[in-house]
Specification:
Distance between the termini: 73 Å
Largest sheet: none
Structural class: mainly alpha
Strand content: under 5%
Number of strands: 0
Number of domains: 2
Order of helices and strands: HHHHH
Number of helices: 5
C-alpha cells in the first residue's frame, strides 16, 4: 500500500493516466519527474552548503566568482596569461610567482 492506496486504486490511477496522456507520454513524464527530483535534491544540498557559516564566508569573499575565475585573476595579477593552461599547472605557477613576489 502506497500512501493509503491499495493495488486496485493504483491500477485505476494508472489507467486514468493512460487515457489522459497516452502510453507514449508516460515514460517521458516519469523521466521528467525523476530529473526534477534530482534537481530538487541538488538544490537542497546547495541550500545546506549555504547555511554552513564557513562556506558562506568563503562565498562572500569570492564575490560570486568560481574558483577558476579567481585563479585566472590571480594569474593575470602576476603576469601569466591563463588561456589554454591546465588548472593544476596554472595554480602551481601562480603560487610559485606569488611566493617569489612575497619574498621580495
Amino acid at each position: 500500500m502506497i500512501g493509503g492506496l491499495g493495488p486496485l486504486e493504483m491500477f485505476i490511477l494508472v489507467g486514468i493516466f493512460f487515457v489522459l496522456f497516452g502510453a507514449e507520454r508516460l515514460p517521458k513524464m516519469a523521466n521528467a519527474l525523476g530529473r526534477s527530483k534530482g534537481e530538487f535534491q541538488k538544490g537542497l544540498a546547495d541550500t545546506s552548503r549555504a547555511l554552513d557559516p564557513s562556506k558562506a564566508i568563503e562565498d562572500m569573499e569570492a564575490g560570486g566568482r568560481t574558483a577558476e575565475q579567481r585563479l585566472f585573476e590571480r594569474a593575470k595579477a602576476v603576469g601569466i596569461e591563463p588561456a589554454g593552461m591546465e588548472m593544476g599547472k596554472l595554480e602551481k605557477k601562480v603560487e610559485a610567482l606569488e611566493a617569489l613576489s612575497s619574498d621580495e
